[in-house]
Design a protein that fits this description.
The protein is of the alpha+beta class and about 120 residues long. The protein folds into two domains: about 1-85, no CATH class; about 85-125, no CATH class. The protein is built from four helices and two strands; from the N terminus they run ααααββ. It has helices spanning about 15-20, 30-40, 70-80, 90-95, and strands at about 95-105, 115-125.
């Protein structure tokens, strides 16, 4: 179970979506899916993925998407802050990987608290 899933392939019933006010227009071309999952799940691990599914997501191909990254990061941080601590290490371990280190995507954004850290993973020995 997960806190959130990517909206690249996310199934949510219309009544459920309407019950939380739908996708928040505060987020522009990004982060709407994560925000939606947090609002739907109220911080619980309630989302499941269909491991047998095949989905091709051409990430980052939405025209103009990159223009709103900073706006979305500030908006996300203002709304969710530290509400959901990272839980990726456990999920990587279950799949047979170790997190070797975390790498910052844009060091100049660290002081502002909106940098993203990505795991570099290695197969378990």
């Amino acid at each position: 179970m997960w806190w959130a899933l990517t909206g690249a392939c996310l199934r949510v019933g219309g009544a459920v979506l309407a019950g939380v006010g739908g996708l928040d227009p505060l987020f522009i071309k990004g982060k709407k899916d994560i925000d939606l999952c947090y609002r739907l799940g109220h911080g619980r691990h309630v989302f499941e993925y269909a491991a047998g599914s095949t989905v091709t997501h051409h990430e980052g191909r939405t025209k103009g998407r990159g223009r709103f990254i900073i706006h979305n990061r500030y908006s996300y941080t203002a709304r969710w802050g530290e509400a959901f601590p990272g839980d990726d290490v456990d999920f990587y371990a279950k799949d047979g990987f170790l997190v070797a280190e975390y790498m910052i995507d844009r060091p100049e954004l660290e002081a502002e608290g909106i940098a993203c850290w990505r795991a570099r993973i290695e197969a378990k020995a």
